[in-house]
Amino acid sequence: MEQFVFFGGKGGVGKTTVSCAYALKCAEAGLDTLVVSTDPAHSTADVFDQAFDDDPTAVEGRERLWAMEIDPDEEVERHMGEIRRRMNEQVSAAIVNEIDRQIELAHRTPGAYEAALFDRFIEVMRTADDYDRVVFDTSPTGGTLRLLALPDFLEGWIERLVAKRTKSVDLFEKAAVGDREARRKLDEDPLIAHLQGRKERFEFAGRTLRDESAFFLVVNPDELSIRETERAVAEMAEQDLGVEGLVVNRVTPAPDEDEQGRGATWLRDRVATERERIDEIRRAFDEPVVAEIESRVREVKGDLLAAVADELAIDADAGSVEA
Amino acid sequence: MEQFVFFGGKGGVGKTTVSCAYALKCAEAGLDTLVVSTDPAHSTADVFDQAFDDDPTAVEGRERLWAMEIDPDEEVERHMGEIRRRMNEQVSAAIVNEIDRQIELAHRTPGAYEAALFDRFIEVMRTADDYDRVVFDTSPTGGTLRLLALPDFLEGWIERLVAKRTKSVDLFEKAAVGDREARRKLDEDPLIAHLQGRKERFEFAGRTLRDESAFFLVVNPDELSIRETERAVAEMAEQDLGVEGLVVNRVTPAPDEDEQGRGATWLRDRVATERERIDEIRRAFDEPVVAEIESRVREVKGDLLAAVADELAIDADAGSVEA
């Protein structure tokens, strides 16, 4: 049974709705479930009509369901603060200002959001022992997935650094026979310890994502969304991550059979086009379609959420596709 | 008259369709127009049913209309190649391997895409003299917008670097009276020249985006899209970039007045919900709504594109809202 379930897909396809519906389904099946939202628009708050923050909070009126919202802006600030604190411990006061400027510069680059968010994901995964199921309303893509290759890079970097420092220590000991102070310092080297820590975090992330996580992609029945989904599947495959199934969301409902008029004609044509796209999805992907969810007239919240949950053929117990 | 027009908005709202429709409108008004697409799904190719690449190519069957597609993957590769080449000219062969690893590491971070794309945007803006109008199907957001603050950071960095090197040269000249060689070297310093070049590029980008560009945001009539648009307007305002107008896309058509049945009921409720959202958009934003574009039954291409272009109340001549 996978503890972590991710619903990926491009902005606007309905990831948050599907994630909240699946989390509700898990909770109602008796699992202690946490839904983690990273949507800057904080739509989890809309779905449950309740404010959430960075700490898991029980969803009112639901049993065994908790939610938290991660704010990318706050994560970047927190990230900068931590690096600053660690640097200040390790360097002389004279260059603190210079380093502050460099840290701020680094956090102005695009991607600082994604990196900080991914760090927070890892943190949530490490400390999620209280929950049977953790549902994320997004899934690592492009740049973030490439971070999973970091351990190999860091490994080489650490090895070369350790080799250089060991050589220095050897020379020092030859000069000052019997003095083991330098070797002790090497064992405690804060930079090497930090790199080692990073490497282990990303190794943990890679392992957890590969062995204890299930990924679903949310797709809309239009060409653009299909193309983007193909791309996402390929990007994930590059990192040995498989996709469990596809959730087709925003499917237009059909009119009555005998219905006539501008509206019925439009709907009928639209339904026919979407039917072609859904057939294409079933043909083009090896991954099964685990739900076709109809567009609702209003935003999905309250009782509508339970209705959407019923349409998801994803087994709450196994985090996998229902037989 | 702004030469550059950007259509921003989250994924899936229909930026490429609106951009291509507006570019067509400009071309038909007699302007030599280039549409620049950065969509990894390359939907410009679908809209015009023609393949495009990194070089502007005439759109078949249309006058005065060119299109190009920028591939973020290729841009990252090109970016890495350039940095490598420059580094290899400046450093000893012994550390080239180490630098290669560092460059590759840097390009594995999230955001490398956005940074490389923005560089390419600047390049397009610098060399677009042949076109009266250049239309981008995306607009800088979050991380990329923060790059506009780079010139100030680089300025301080360059100043400190020049001061340090000048001091070294002064000392050198005191020791070797009359030898001006070191001072000449300082004037030609490749690192300082490179930083200076970066600074000027980003200054050019900031100036061009602020003074010669018009920004429109594409929004769908739902709460999530409205919230995301508010966020985008605020992010742009932080960098002194104003939004000219909002394009409401994917508006559901109404059924006939006397139409009855499941389809008519669904459409009527849906239209009513969207009407509330559009009223909210008109209330919540200072920026005018310059178009309400109905959802089409099929993907917008061919003749449909001209129909959509007609619905855009954006003046082709002025790149601003029609009176």
TrEMBL record, chains A, B:
Source species, domain of life: Archaea
CDD domains linked: ArsA
SUPFAM superfamilies: P-loop containing nucleoside triphosphate hydrolases
A GO term for molecular function: ATP hydrolysis activity
Residues annotated as signal peptide: none
One Pfam family recorded for the sequence: ArsA_ATPase
Family: Belongs to the arsA ATPase family.
PANTHER family: ARSENICAL PUMP-DRIVING ATPASE ARSENITE-TRANSLOCATING ATPASE, ATPASE GET3
Full protein name: Transport ATPase (Substrate arsenite)
Lineage: Archaea, Methanobacteriati, Methanobacteriota, Stenosarchaea group, Halobacteria
